[in-house]
Design goal:
The protein is built from nine helices and eleven strands. The protein folds into two domains: 30-115, 3-Layer(aba) Sandwich (Rossmann fold), CATH 3.40.50; 141-279, Rossmann fold (3-Layer(aba) Sandwich). It has helices at 8-28, 44-59, 75-87, 106-112, 124-131, 141-152, 172-181, 196-200, 279-298; strands at residues 4-5, 34-40, 63-69, 93-96, 161-165, 185-189, 205-208, 226-229, 233-234, 252-253, 266-268. Bound molecules: nicotinamide-adenine-dinucleotide. Nicotinamide-adenine-dinucleotide is lined by residues 142, 165-168, 170-172, 189-191, 193, 196, 209-212, 215, 230-233, 277-279, 282.
């Protein structure tokens, strides 16, 4: 059997088209949705992610302001700037790039970011709103992206057995809540799970996000499995060495090995040939959240 390949990019394009329409409507009412990105240091990966966000947002008429700090920024300086961005009426959302350097205390920062301007649910208020299905909240973009993928491909999760291989606050836990809200039966596996395969083999849907190429192999799946691989990893060989492409560059993958497509019914993964994974949906939803915040903060329906 050869799986139907699901395209995260296709899902993201539908979301971006809606964002553009919504942003134009807001513009007609004199509101320009605006995101502030707070970045510490000059990590090339973060800079390239920031550039891709700016480009995508510009295409949907969302403004972005980069607020950059030197690597040695103090907690006091960071918090003071965060508070002023919280107060800035022209800014509707604030995305804080992680990881933060050791001298910054994320435990304090996450309570300071205004929950109404918190598009990726850093502030625990938003995770609480997810628990009680309060739609004024913001839910983590990557987890919500998996639900958008199900919606786009008309995958009804009600009554389905779902295994999520990830127990983080940005993915496994919020996604488990979203799925149970839709009446799926959810198991969460993690690094200390005795046998992940025991769970995945029984599951209608497997969501994996570990960042380990080849963590998911066909023998772990049943014939009807739907696989959503959220991970961003790099290909390694059996000895744990990076596999390089013809230009000497590391090969980007997800957790799923290529041959999972021979067993699964549907799949998306960043592993080459498997549809690209969910990364583009995450960024598109970030834009949706900026627009939602702009509407809520300005009292526009
Ligand atoms: N697609 C996107 O938009 C997007 C966004 C954010 C993160 N990611 C990717 O998702 C992955 C997870 O991100 P995160 O922030 O949750 O990372 P994390 O390090 O917090 O979580 C990793 C998870 O993998 C589990 N794990 C590790 N080894 C395991 C093993 N051998 N067996 C079972 N479980 C194992 C851990 O217990 C943990 O739950 C990363 O690859 C990251 O790059 C993708």
């Amino acid at each position: 059997m050869s799986a139907v390949i699901m395209s995260g990019k296709e899902v993201s394009e539908a979301i971006l088209a809606q964002n553009l329409e919504d942003a134009k409507e807001l513009k007609a009412k004199g509101i320009i949705p605006k995101l502030a990105i707070m970045r510490v240091g000059d990590d090339p990966g973060s800079i390239s992610y920031e550039k891709s966000i700016i480009k995508r947002m510009a295409n949907t008429e969302i403004e972005v302001e980069s607020v950059c700090f030197p690597l040695e920024v103090t907690q006091k300086e960071f918090v003071s700037k965060l508070k002023s961005v919280n107060e800035d009426k022209s800014i509707h959302s604030i995305l804080i790039f992680k990881p933060l350097p050791a001298q910054l205390d994320e435990e304090e920062i996450k309570y300071i970011i205004n929950p109404a301007k918190d598009p990726d649910a850093l502030n625990p208020t938003n995770l609480g709103k997810l628990m009680i299905q309060d739609e004024t909240g913001f839910f983590p973009c990557t987890a919500e992206g998996v639900m958008e993928l199900f919606k786009y491909y008309k995958i009804d999760v009600k009554g389905k057995d779902v295994t999520i291989i990830n127990n983080s606050n940005v993915l496994g836990k919020p996604l488990a809540i979203m799925l149970t809200n839709e009446f799926a039966t959810v198991s969460i596996c993690h690094v200390f799970t005795k046998s992940v395969k025991d769970y995945t083999l029984k599951s209608d849907i497997v969501v994996t996000a570990c960042g380990i190429y080849s963590l998911l192999t066909p023998d772990m799946l049943n014939d009807n499995a739907i696989v959503v691989d959220v991970a961003m990893a790099q290909k390694k060989n059996a000895s744990g060495e990076f596999v390089l492409d013809e230009n000497g560059k590391k090969i980007r993958t997800g957790d799923a090995r290529e041959d999972c497509a021979e067993k699964a019914k549907m799949i998306t993964s960043a592993t080459p040939g498997l549809g690209g994974g969910t990364g583009p949906i995450t960024t598109a939803l970030l834009g949706s959240h900026v627009i939602k915040a702009a509407k809520l903060l300005s009292g526009v329906k």
